């Protein structure tokens, strides 16, 4: 799992807290935090949670370090709801390709919100590491290409200020 941060101490803590059950089940084995120069407690939060913290790093730096054949990109502050593990495992086992999460009901967008520009990773991105490497782009650009499957697993995206 990869999370890009910059002064996201609170958001990172919330995202990591939602992953505890997946870590216990062995679904999440490593979390790499690619930080763009935080001057708050982001590094401390990552360290206390057992994450790998890469200072002044980009997505590609974290991807190169990742040991898993599958990558999960999340924004700090995003929360995967408890039912996410089974759909993700099923998708990975079936070699389903790149996919995003489904917005939780409480995080649905209004018509006007859907018309405005959205953040590329606000609904996360699950993809084979080989696809990322062969695409020669970053996670946001890959997500922006569209045509991705939507998982039944639900996410509450981070708020824009996170």
UniProtKB/TrEMBL annotation:
Coiled coil: none annotated. It is found in: Cell membrane. It comes from Aquamicrobium zhengzhouense. This is Glycosyl transferase family 2. InterPro entries: Nucleotide-diphossugar_trans. Keywords: Cell membrane, Glycosyltransferase, Membrane, Transferase. The keyword Transit peptide does not apply. The keyword Glycosyltransferase applies. GO terms for molecular function: transferase activity.
């Amino acid at each position: 799992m990869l999370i890009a941060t910059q002064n996201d101490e609170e958001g990172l803590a919330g995202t990591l807290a939602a992953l505890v059950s997946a870590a216990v089940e062995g679904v999440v084995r490593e979390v790499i935090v690619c930080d763009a120069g935080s001057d708050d407690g982001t590094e401390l939060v990552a360290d206390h949670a057992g994450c790998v913290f890469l200072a002044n790093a980009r997505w590609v730096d974290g991807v190169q370090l990742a040991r898993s054949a599958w990558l999960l990109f999340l924004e700090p502050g995003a929360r995967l709801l408890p039912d996410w593990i089974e759909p993700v495992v099923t998708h990975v086992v079936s070699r389903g390709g790149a996919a995003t999460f489904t917005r939780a009901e409480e995080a649905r967008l209004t018509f006007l919100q859907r018309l405005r520009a959205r953040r590329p990773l606000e609904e996360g991105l699950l993809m084979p590491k080989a696809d990322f490497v062969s695409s020669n782009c970053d996670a946001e650009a890959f997500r922006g290409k569209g045509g991705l499957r939507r998982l039944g697993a639900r996410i509450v995206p981070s708020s824009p200020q996170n």
